[in-house]
Amino acid sequence: MVLLNLLNLIVRFRPLWQLKNAVVKGVANTIKALDDLTKAATGKSIAENFDALKVIINAAFSVIVNVIKASTLFFKTLFSIWVLGFL
Question: Which of 33, 39, 47, 69 has the greatest number of C-beta atoms within 10 Å?
Answer without folding.
Answer: 39
